[in-house]
Amino acid sequence: MSTVSKSAIISLSIADFANTDPFGKTNVLGMFADYLGYDPVLKQTTRFSLLAEVLLPVSLCPTEFDFELALTDASGNLFTANDGKAQKPAPLVQIRQRVKLEKPKQDIPSDQHLSLELPLRHTFVIDFPSGLPLNPDTVYCWRLQLDGDADNARLLPFAVA
After folding, report:
1. Of 31-35, 73-77, 105-109, minimum mean pLDDT range
2. What's CA 103's distance to the chain center, in Å?
3. 111 lies in some domain
4. Least CB-packed of 40, 47, 48, 65 within 10 Å?
5. Residue 62 is assigned to a structural domain of this protein
6. What is the helix (H) or strand (E) element at residue 36, kind and residue range?
């Protein structure tokens, strides 16, 4: 277990639409969806966005950590889309990246003091404008883990209606 994964506050949410502007502000519509719609003609879910947020105490920074976001089935196994053509099906969604967080520069006048240190935030938004080829009436789960620490992973179950 890493210090980062043990100290982090992790949140995951599904929304109808989300994006992050150049200043780090996240814009969200229709947040906290537990069910995704399904288009039987296209055989996939309706459009949606996934928001992931990691908050860390500023005392841990500067720091680097591994960020892994994956789509799993209800049993926790990576969900694969098997079209019958691939010899070994690959995970449908598995995103890995190395995140580096620095201490913020202090722009507060020296005569003012903050009673609390604000946490550092890493926000990750992924938009699925065409949905995903998931099965209706099925439960899936988004899993976010830091530094490969499965014990402190954050899980977000959802269903396809």
Report:
1. 105-109
2. 22
3. no
4. 40
5. yes
6. strand 35-36
One-letter identity of residue 43? K
- Per-residue model confidence as pLDDT tens digits over 23-54: 889 999 999 889 999 999 999 999 999 999 99
Amino acid (one-letter) located at 91: P
The residue written with tokens 């201490």 in the block is 103
Domain extent, residue 75, equals 3-106+117-160
CA separation for the pair 4, 147 (Å, rounded): 8
88 DSSP 8-state letter: S
Strand order across the beta sheet in which 63-73 lies: 35-36, 154-160, 138-146, 63-73, 94-101
DSSP states of 109-158 as a string? -TT---SSPPPEEEEEEEEETT-----TTEEEEEEEEETT-GGG-EEEEE
**pTM for the whole thing?**
0.87
- Pairing, β 44-45 against β 94-101: unpaired
